[in-house]
Amino acid sequence: MMEINLADDNVKSCIVAVSMNENIHDNQLGAALMSAYRTQSSLFISALNNTSEFKVALDILNDEMSDFIKNSKVDH
After folding, report:
1. Tens digits of per-residue pLDDT, 21-62?
2. What whole-number distance in Å separates Cα of residue 8 and Cα of residue 1?
3. Which helix (H) or strand (E) holds 52?
4. For residues 60 and 32, what is the distance between their CA atoms, to the nearest angstrom?
5. Are 40 and 14 in contact (CB under 8 A)?
6. Half-sphere exposure of residue 69: CA atoms within 13 angstroms, side-chain side
7. In the prediction, which pLDDT does 7 show?
8. Which residues have a Cβ under 8 Å from the Cβ of 44 and sit 6 or more positions away?
9. Could you give the CA distance from residue 4 to residue 8 in angstroms, rounded to a whole number?
């Protein structure tokens, strides 16, 4: 099993890119994320980072991750 650093901006970009792709079915999300992560293209990630849709999705992801981290600390 491969560990993914959720604090890494490129990892977040890959997560958002996969979530924005409406052609990927829920049962394909894991494979799509790993594919995006393994073949990261800084050119495409940079272009994607400049879109308003990406920025909104990234804000949502960051909020969800923050909530998850807070709740994980409370549980321990």
Report:
1. 999 999 999 899 889 888 888 888 888 889 999 999 999 999
2. 18
3. helix 52-75
4. 20
5. yes
6. 8
7. 83
8. 17
9. 8
